[in-house]
Amino acid sequence: MKLQLRHWSERPRILVLMLAVVLPAMALIVFGVVHLRSIQRDKAIEAAFQRNYQQVLAIAEKQIDERAYEMAEDARAKFPDTGNADDLNSFLAEHPDIAHAFLWTGKGEYEFRSQAKRMRDRQFCTESQTISSDLGSWWDMESKTVIGRIKKLEAKEGRHVFIANNWVTRGEKMQYQTLVLFRPTGSTSEHPALAGFIYDTDYLKNSFFPQALNDVLPDQNQDDMSHPQKGLMVRVEKEEYPFATSMYWDGGSPEVERPFESVFPGMVLGIKLRGTTIASISEHLLRTNFLVLGALSLLMGAGLILTYRNVSRELALAKLKSDFVSNVSHELRTPLALIRLYAETLELGRISNSGKQQEYYEIIRKESERLTSLINNILDFSRIESGKKEYTFRETNVADLVRSTLESYRFEIEQNGFQFEQKIDENVPPLWVDREAIARSLLNLVNNAVKYSANEKYLGVRLYRHNSGVNLEVVDHGIGIPAKEHLKIFEKFYRVGDPLVHNTKGSGLGLSLVCHIVQAHGGEVAVESAPGKGSKFIITLPLQRLVGQE
Ligand code: ADP
User: Fold this and answer.
1) C-beta of 443 in contact with ligand 1 (< 6 A)
2) Cβ of residue 489 lying under 6 Å from some atom of ligand 1
3) Tens-place pLDDT, residues 34-57
4) Of 280 and 399, more confident
5) What is the DSSP annotation of 12-41?
């Protein structure tokens, strides 16, 4: 009861200590959870991915535009100066990627040529005728505006070509075409000329865009699972399916899209991840973060519980030590006071009765013995604690050792009103033991039996062979020990928190010494006891010890 109360008085200190750690830790965890939840709610990861992909697409568009300009400028440089039909034909022959080429000389001449090789294809032939006639009428309406625009481009951006889109019907479908217009070398302000060509749709679809898209995202490692490859695609605004795709495009719809602004109006650039989606990546990231946070919280909780247990144990030990000091001082003071009292009485010479004198001498002797055994216990304990305790093992007749140890106490025990029963098997084999240590263990147990016997004063000591060892039992019919204390009583300084125990002098060292000594002999000590039913302490010493030492 008393010990419990002491524990409680320590608790606020531990709790303050714990709170100092628990509160910031909890705050950190709660902050972590709230933060992750807000990321989850605001779809912040998805948004960051999308922003990033928008940038990738903007860069991709610039690169593709640049590529288209370079290609168009190259073709322009090789474009014939004259409106000669043969020149246009040979230009087309050199540029299979171009479907149609045309030139207005500015002097009323208009020449239009299509890839001769493909004119056998009926659809292509019709396309050629349509474009040729459309362009014929277009000149009168638009040429001035376009020439003005090209001049502006030349002045502002240093570009000589104007790229526009053109829709034609091929078969039943409308097809996207890229039209390049420029001022040919023969153009003068007096006779403004205009030339141009149209890229073949199949070339754009199968060659130009796939290559351009692959070059935008080079060096993607296929085996790097932590960074899924990005796939790019272009599609015509009015259609869902891709016009052209890059290497890692695995179908489906793009996650982020961006319409082409300058060179390929009407086209849309799209990006997505191969084999996954932004949403599932974000979910995975969040799940990992939640798991890490959970694991960290668990670790922190476990750490706190461990710290709490350690700190409480240390505090309890500190308390036990201070109890020990006061117990020991008390134990030393009583015999010293008695010795002094009886010695002084004897010194005064007033006691003439020799029987009384004898009794006083005996008291002085017994009290000195008690002091010696207490001090021996403390010395042994301090040697054990500092690891300096040494045992001197000798072959010993344990029956003799037990008998002689008890003999010197028998009188005292019996005088205290104890019924003393001793059963020693004379045939137990000799053991290899430290005699003094074993005698001290036995005395500690006998002392306890005497100390903790209130009404029924019985002491039994038994020595007998048991299985592969020798058992030494000390039995009493005293106050007994509750089962939950059976392990603790062998700890240093520990005393049962029972008022009956606290009214009895003690240091809490006896049983811990017994335990240490017996273990040093390779044996073990056990207790059988219940409150009010007495106690039985059993020391088991192994026989092998003897064999091992021989
Ligand atoms: P102490 O100096 O207090 O006797 P011990 O280490 O010898 O220290 O014993 C530890 C505690 O075990 C005692 O305080 C007591 O509560 C309990 N104990 C030991 N032996 C007995 C016994 N024979 N009967 C009842 N309680 C006992």
Assistant:
1) no
2) yes
3) 999 998 888 888 899 899 999 999
4) 399
5) HHHHHHHHHHHHHHHHHHHHHHHHHHHHHH
